[in-house]
Amino acid sequence: MAHQVDAKRMLDERGYEGAVIHNQNPAHLLEKGVRDRVTESYYWKEQCFAINEATLCDRAVEMTYLGGTYGQQKPTAFICLSLKLLQLMPEREIVLEYLQQKEFKYLSALAAFYIRLTFDSKDVYLTLEPLLGDYRKLRRRTKDGGYALTYMDQFVDDLLTKDRVCGTSLRKLPLRSVLEDLGQLEMRESPLGEELDEIDDDIPQSDSASHSDRSASFDSSQHSFGTHTRNGA
Fold it and tell me: Which of 39, 60, 98, 166 stands the most exposed, by the fewest C-beta atoms within 10 Å?
């Protein structure tokens, strides 16, 4: 009962005094319009009532798509459960377990979205970047009520590079290069780097030299062409 009272108080606009994330009421990390549509929805009232971290998993594994709102501004189960997570504020270890388990991809996506909303900038990069190598297919609900195909790596890339995902604005995330310059992150190596090095190692020296000669010849012709063009102009 106490949990239900705390959850209701979190959604109250007046005098919230509970735990904060990024110096604000956690529920307010979702836009007010989105929160209002969620709390007025059938799914929220019927499926999100009095659930905890464990029973939330039961709801999450039933999801078959992600997204914000669609059709007549109807909220998806994904965005409803995102607000519920903001209410519950589970321990970090639980969120990471949601993220790293491999059986339920929409539970991983839900955790990634929550991490983007709530973790510090450095930890957002460190925690989500490994999923840039996760190519599981996901369905995304579009505004018109249809579906679009996406992938886990694309969804995570959107979280790291865009200011608006799943129909709601996200907290501004500093560029990775800025955090690198500040010494908070090490430079990220491309996962293709080692493969490219192996390909270079496999090229015989004669082929490599021939390739260099062709490149030099091409560069020379390009320079000559550019010169003629500029002279002609």
Answer: 39
